[in-house]
Automatic annotation (TrEMBL):
Source species: Commensalibacter melissae
Enzyme kind, highest EC tier: transferase
Gene3D superfamilies assigned to the protein according to its UniProt record, in alphabetical order: Isopropylmalate Dehydrogenase
GO MF assignments: phosphate acetyltransferase activity
Keyword presence, Plastid: no
Positions of the Phosphate acetyl/butaryl transferase domain: 80-293
Designated name of the protein: Phosphate acetyltransferase
Amino acid sequence: MYNHHQKIIEKAKVKSPPYCAVCYPCEATAIESGLEAFKLGLLTPIFVGPKKQIKLIAEQYRLDLKNHQIIEASSEFEAATHSVKLIREQKAHLLMKGSLHTDILLKAVINKETGLRTGKRITHVFLMDGPNWNTPYMITDAAINIAPDLVTKMHIIQNAIDLHHALGYGVPKVAILSAVEMVNPDISSTLEAAALCKMADRKQIVNGILDGPLALDNAISPEAAAMKGLDTPVTGKAQILVVPNLEAGNIFFKSLSFIGQADSAGIVLGAKAPIILTSRASSLDSRLVSCAMAKLSYHHSLTH
């Protein structure tokens, strides 16, 4: 585990562990994630799914479920519904995806009558860390919103800013990415970037410093920014990287992971509780950092 991710876990340990509904943990990795997070003091798991199957998997992989609560739910749909209900009833404060399909969980989350909707849009943030990086980077949204419109991008940015504060990183420098740093009517993402910066000027987005459009090199490299004659509080120093759409974000974070040897962790924001939405291929370290992020986000929400 890289340095910045490790610091997030250490920071989260000092907070009291919230209850977490672990939804449909019918794979060993899902059960292990809840148990290891519990050992680190990151959360207290409530496993929601087919009790007999969960116990058999735990026994097969020598995972000790003694003294941990398991709530019976026979199907993925039932587990998702019951997990969301635990959040609504304030019996759980975090939600973790187990081995069910993501769309089943999210359908339960966004249900207008029984879900976890708030006035915010549901968005996702990756926290990337790599070898000898001076700073971690947040990438958003590379997992939930496929082709976000202007209003959705406003929520994407605000949710990421709020998380940046929750993790103790202070006021973030936010780069709204495109292919170029000049507004070009033929590239819609440059127009939206310019509009989002003006929205921040008008306090429609708060507690962050925005600049855009910016190409990636101008956002993170002081040398590249200087060569283009760009000198703002964000250029070359960005901490939150806002991608134009899911395709760009997905390619970006996977390039960092598989070519740049970076590690990723991430959570879903904008619902009534932080959602730990790791993939089945995620490492245990990634899952634990995601749990720590969710815990810090939850505690921050209690006072803000």
